[in-house]
Amino acid sequence: MPTSITSPDLLETISAAQTAAAQGQSKNINVNGQQIKVSYPFPSPGDWRDCCIYFLMLDRFANALAAPRGTWNQIFKRRQGGTFKGVEGQLGYIADLGTKAIWLSPVLKNVKPDVDFNYHGYGAQDFVNVDGRFASDGTRATAEMELAELVEQAHARGLYVIFDIVLNHGGRVFDYVRPEGVVQMFSDGQVMDGPLGDEPPIEWVNGLGLPWGDWRDQLPAPSALSVDDAVWPSDFQNRLFFRRRGTTLTNTPGARGFVPGDFGNMRQLVAEYDASVAGQEALRASYGVAPVMTILIRAYQYLMAKYDVDGYRIDTVKYVYPDGVRNFGNAMREYGLSIGKQNFFTFGEIYDTEQTIEGFVGRRTGGGEGFGIDAALDFPLFYVLPAVAKGLAGVETIRQVFEARKQAELGQLSSHGEAGRYFVSFLDNHDQGQRIQHPSTPREQVTLALGLLFALQGIPCVYYGTEQGLSGTRKPDGTPDLGTNESVREALWGKTPVAFDETHPTYQNIKALTALRSSEPALSYGRLYFREVSGNGSDFGQSSGNGGIVAFSRILVDREVLVVANTNSSAGFSGSVIVDRDINATPKRMQVAFSNLGTNGAGTVQQIRAARIYTANGVTTGAVEALPVVLASSEVQILTPV
Questions:
Q1: With contact defined as beta carbons under 8 Å apart, do 324 and 271 qualify?
Q2: In sequence order, what are the residues at sequence separation of 6 or more whose Cβ sits closer than 8 angstroms to the Cβ of residue 272?
Q3: Which of 9, 61, 246, 547 maximizes the CB count within 10 A of its CB?
C-alpha cells in the first residue's frame, strides 16, 4: 500500500495506466457467465448530458450477506453495513433503471475509531487507500479487490463510476490544546481567538482516537507510526498543512471566495498554502509552490489510475479557494486525457447562488487561465423545483432560475443550449432534511418533479431510494422522524417485502424518462424556451403563482419537444401552449411520449391569427402557433412530433 505520493507503487500505478492507454489494452469481464470485452482504461462518454446519474450512499445501499445493523428506516448514526459487493449485486437493477453513471459516496479510509460514526465517509484519514469497512471481510486488501471488481462490472454493463472526494478537509486527525492546557476533542463551533499565525498547539490523534502528548505539533518519522495513526499519506503529516483555527461560523450564501475553518471535528486543509515565501525552500523543492494541492492532485490521479474511475464529485467546493479548484480540475482533466479518458468529469458541491457557482465552473473561472471544474450541483434549481412540483411555490421561479443562468454564464456559453453541461440537477440528496417523497406527498407530485428534472437543462441525478418511494426515517411508533440529514439515509436493502422492486411505479416512471431522454437528443442538448399558455385559446401569457402551469420547449435543430406540467393538485387544465412558428409553419401533430399518470393521446398544432400576448411590457396582438393540451391535476406531459 502506498504511504506517500512518492511511493514507488503509487507512481508505478499512475504510469501503468498511461502505458495501457497508449497500447490500447482491454479486459475480458465475466458478467453472468458471458465474457464482455472492455477497453482499459475505460473511455469517457462523449457528453455527460447523455448520462443520468444514480447517487448512492455505500453504507446505506446494499449488503447481500447481512441485514442492516439498525432498523432500516429509523435514524441510525452509525454504520449500517453496506458493502462494495452489495452494490455490485445491484448493478443490473441500476442499469435497468436507465441511469448511465453511479456516484458512490466516499470510499477512502476514515479516522478510527470514529469510522463507525463517520459511516458517510467524509472524514478521510488516508487519502490514497480505501476503507476496509466496505469489504465483505472488513480488510483493506479485500476492499481494494472488491472495489476494482465493482468498477469493472459496472463498465462491462456500460455504467460509468464517479467517486465522491473531498479537497477541503480530512477527519479528526488531531485535537486542539487550549491555553489552559486542556486538549479539546471537538472545536464545538468556536473560532480560535487571535490573529492568523497565532494558532494553538495541536496533539495528533493515534489509531485509538486519543490525542498523544508526545505528538504535540510534531510527529515522529512515518516509519514509527501505524497506518491508523494521524493522517496519510505521510506528506500530510505537517501541521502547517492544516488550518488549525477551529470551526467556522461564517456560511453566508452568496459570499465569494472560500471560508476558512473546520467542519465540526473534520479538520480543514490549507489548500492555498504557499511555499514560495521565505523559509519554505524545502517544501517548495519537494512539492512546488502549492504543496497541499500538489499532494491532493497526485493522490486523486492515483485513485483514477488504480480504480479506472470516470469522474469525481467534489465535496464542499465552496470552502476551497477558487484558484485551487481550477488547478485541481485542470490536473484531473489532463491526467484523464493521458489515459484515454477524454472527458473525465468533475463536478462540485457549491451550496450557493448562481453567481458564486459561476466562479468555480467552466472557462474563465476565477479570472485566471484555463478551466475550472466541469459542473456544479444545481442548487439554484433545487431551491425551487420540489416546491413548485408540490404547488408550494410559484411556477415562475423555475423560469427565473434559467433566466438568471443565461446572464451569469454569458462568458461561457456558445449557445444557451450548452447551459446543461455545467449543472448536475437533483431533487434531494443525503444532506437534506427530507426527501422529495415526504410521507404526506402524493406520488404524482414526485413523478411530476421527476418529469421536469429529466426534461429541463442539466444532467439529472436520482438519489437512491427515490425509485422505491422512500419517504424518510420513522420513529419507533411509525411517525415521521424528519428534519436532519440523518432522516434521508435509510438502509435501502432492509426494506420489506422487496427492497429492489423493478415493478415499483416510481421506478417505472424513471425508467420511462431515461428511455425517452436517450431517444430524444433535444432533451439532453436542446435550447430551452419557456412558453406562454392560454385557458381560452386567445389570451396567452406566462403562467405564475402556486399551482400554475410550467411550459417550455426543448429545441434541437428543427425538432421541438414540448413539456407541460400542471402543478395544481386539485384541478385539471385544458388550454393551449405556444410552440415555435417556424418549425410549425406546416402544423405538426404531436403525441404524448411521457405522462407521469400514463395518459396517451395526440394533437395537432393550430394557428391562431389574432392571439393576444400579455407580457410585463404590455399586450401585443398577432398570429401564433399553439398546441391544445389537456392535463389532469399534478400531471406532466412530454410531447414529441409524431
A1: yes
A2: 258, 290, 292, 293, 321, 323, 324
A3: 61
- 183 pairs with which residues across the strands? 177
Q: SS3 sequence, 257-284?
A: CCCCCEECCECEECCCCCCCCCCCHHHH
Provide the grid cell at 60: 446505506
Q: What is the pTM of this model?
A: 0.94
Name the DSSP class of 162: E
Contact 324, 360 (CB under 8 A): no
The fraction of the chain above a pLDDT of 70, given in percent, is 92
The better pLDDT of the pair 200, 313 is held by 313
Cis peptide before 222 (omega within 30 of 0): no
**Phi-psi region for residue 194, left (φ > 0), alpha (ψ -120 to 50) or beta?**
left
132 burial via Cβ count (<10 Å: 0-12, 13-18, 19+): middle
Burial class (CB in 10 A: 0-12, 13-18, 19+), 584: buried
Q: Is the dihedral of CA 360, 364, 367, 372 positive or negative?
A: positive
112 pLDDT tier (thresholds 50, 70, 90):
confident
- C-alpha span between 268 and 167 (Å, rounded): 9
pLDDT, tens digit (0-9, with 9 covering 90-100), for 440-488: 999 999 999 999 999 999 999 999 999 999 999 999 999 999 999 999 9
> How many Å apart are CA 595 and CA 309, to the nearest integer?
35
Pairing relationship of beta strands 559-566 and 549-556 according to DSSP bridges: antiparallel
Mean predicted confidence (pLDDT) in 194-206: 77
pLDDT at 377: 96
Q: From residue 321, how far is each of 164, 277, 317, 385 by CA, in Å?
A: 19, 18, 8, 29
Model confidence pLDDT, tens digit, residues 121-133? 999 999 999 999 9
DSSP-derived 3-state class of residue 82: coil
- Residue of 599, 602, 600 whose CA lies nearest to 633: 599
Enter the C-alpha cell of residue 11.
Answer: 507512481
Q: What are the residues facing 165 on neighbouring strands? A: 314
pLDDT tier for residue 357 given thresholds of 50, 70 and 90: confident
